[in-house]
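Worked example 3 (structure in, sequence out).
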């Protein structure tokens, strides 16, 4: 399995499942498998139920396809106070190695830019770890638009592609970066004292690993807005990735709205969460072995974990939840154009396409947004990208409802589900409360209001870019410093990778998702054979008929225009 939770593992453990055998075969099956599902959706526009009070509880499904209420807020990561351009002379060079998967690396890149700004350092283009699951060495050049990244951050930090050589006493000399291991969630003070001291001593430092190595909660809104500028404006995927993503979205939008569901029902997550009991003894043995080899030793009781919302929803529970909310009947339709991607879709680039399609979906639903970097980053990006609707199941609130149903108490099940879901946030602005990540919710730092009594929330002036340009020119900075190493124009060849949503037991659950209206008992999940070869883009749900296509197209165009500015 792809290990997106490497920071929880015991040090010294190897990344594989151990023993190879069955697990290796399952990994191979995952690499070659791809399923892109589009499910025609017939839904009732409004579901009404009584909850014992005089006021009815209802979920207007029609409105869920629209953006959430913004409350007058709009995304804005422009500086709102004095923000000097980076000076000509810096304190040295900062190298970082971003470990983990694509989305963990994305957060690390944001932190690297902020660390460089804090230390007045020249940032060397971040290194992307050869992912331990995909064994993908695409690197920064293979995933992101490097030229756009460097130029868009020119008001914030100096960036070079590699540490340049220096001439001393008539000889060319390389600067060797001093290697440091930053503490997890290190405070700013660590960078401005210890790390900066080493940088000045050696001329360059190399921070590795660099996943979760800078505290997320920082009491400086401008620093947080810099993170947003990196995450939502500077980190743009290569044109080939964007073109492929847009092609898939266009095909889905041709049939109307669509929903992307992130089913995090995978071996690594189940092992990490300790959700074993629903599997057979043989399958439990595999999961326990995986946990022992990859995570710290800890006694976990399934019933307790599920009761507090620590287990991912099963595919069956996802279907029951959607049915209760008003999404009624589904049928499976696999576009031939998407089937063609199966042969060439692998690695980090496949993850990038996943990311973009989920970002552009009308509704995004993660079934487990705990330590999932993919889900958390997407939720934050969709919030910034115009308060796009998200369905975030309250697993703790839903647990007793699902348990009661399993025990035969089916009366009032759907009404109980709706009552729980009506208490959740569907994508609008809301206060960030721990343990919610800044990358999941950057409100209010990266948002503003045109009409407000609070100066801190007021949108910056429209000429903020002109001001920053003027500051840059006044520093007499030569923009070619950004290209003093190799030419940015040289691009790696595109390598399309497989999509990332491997689902345990999905094969036995796909019919259930296709016939959600049927009331059936829970089927056994399987870790074996072809069942592990089912993957999704993820599931794409859309209402039947093309009548929504034109409005979706306009909606997407408007949002794209909004996202182009700070």
């Amino acid at each position: 399995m792809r290990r997106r939770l490497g920071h929880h593992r015991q040090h010294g453990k190897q990344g594989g499942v151990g023993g190879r055998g069955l697990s290796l075969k399952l990994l191979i099956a995952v690499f070659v498998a791809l399923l892109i599902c589009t499910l025609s959706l017939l839904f009732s526009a409004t579901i009404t139920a009584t909850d014992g009070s005089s006021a009815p509880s209802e979920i207007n499904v029609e409105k869920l396809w629209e953006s959430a209420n913004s409350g007058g807020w709009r995304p804005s990561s422009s500086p709102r106070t004095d923000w000097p351009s980076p000076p000509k002379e810096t304190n040295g060079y900062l190298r970082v190695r971003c470990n983990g998967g694509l989305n963990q690396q994305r957060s690390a890149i944001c932190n690297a830019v902020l660390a460089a700004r804090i230390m007045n350092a020249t940032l060397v283009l971040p290194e992307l770890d050869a992912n331990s699951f995909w064994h993908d060495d695409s690197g920064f050049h293979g995933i992101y638009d490097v030229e756009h990244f460097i130029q868009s951050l020119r008001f914030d930090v100096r960036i070079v592609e590699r540490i340049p050589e220096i001439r001393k006493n008539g000889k060319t000399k390389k600067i060797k970066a001093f290697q440091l291991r930053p503490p997890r969630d290190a405070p700013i003070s660590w960078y401005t004292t210890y790390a900066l001291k080493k940088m000045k001593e050696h001329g360059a430092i190399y921070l590795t690993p660099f996943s979760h190595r800078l505290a997320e909660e920082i009491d400086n809104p401008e620093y947080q807005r810099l993170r947003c500028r990196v995450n939502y404006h500077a980190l743009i995927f290569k044109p080939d990735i964007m073109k492929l993503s847009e092609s898939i979205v266009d095909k889905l939008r041709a049939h109307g709205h669509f929903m992307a569901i992130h089913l995090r029902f995978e071996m690594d997550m189940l092992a990490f969460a300790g959700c074993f009991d629903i599997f057979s003894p043989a399958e439990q043995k595999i999961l326990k072995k995986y946990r022992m080899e990859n995570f710290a030793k800890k006694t976990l009781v399934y019933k307790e974990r599920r009761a507090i919302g620590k287990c991912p929803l099963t595919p069956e529970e996802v279907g029951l939840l959607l049915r209760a909310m008003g999404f009624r009947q589904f049928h499976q339709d696999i576009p031939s154009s998407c089937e063609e991607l199966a042969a060439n879709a692998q690695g980090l680039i496949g993850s990038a396409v996943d990311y973009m399609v989920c970002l552009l979906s009308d509704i995004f639903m993660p079934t487990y947004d705990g330590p999932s970097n993919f889900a958390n980053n997407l939720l934050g990006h969709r919030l910034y990208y115009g308060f796009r609707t998200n369905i975030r199941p309250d697993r703790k609130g839903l647990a007793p409802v699902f348990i009661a149903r399993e025990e035969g108490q089916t009366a009032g099940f759907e009404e109980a589900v709706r009552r729980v879901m009506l208490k959740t946030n569907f994508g609008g602005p809301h206060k960030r409360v721990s343990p919610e990540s800044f990358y999941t919710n950057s409100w209010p730092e990266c948002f503003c209001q045109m009409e407000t009594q609070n100066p801190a929330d007021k949108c910056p002036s429209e000429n903020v870019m002109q001001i920053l340009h003027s500051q840059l020119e006044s520093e007499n900075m030569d923009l070619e410093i950004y290209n003093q190493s190799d030419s940015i124009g040289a691009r790696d060849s595109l390598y399309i990778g497989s999509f990332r949503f491997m689902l345990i037991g999905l094969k036995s659950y796909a019919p259930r998702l296709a016939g959600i209206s049927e009331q059936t008992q829970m089927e056994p999940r399987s870790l074996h054979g072809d069942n592990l070869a089912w993957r999704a883009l993820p599931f794409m749900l859309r209402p039947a008929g093309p009548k929504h296509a034109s409005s979706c197209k306009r909606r997407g165009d408007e949002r794209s225009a909004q996202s182009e500015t700070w």
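Notes: The CA atoms of residues 99 and 139 lie 11 Å apart. The first helix runs from residue 21 to 32.
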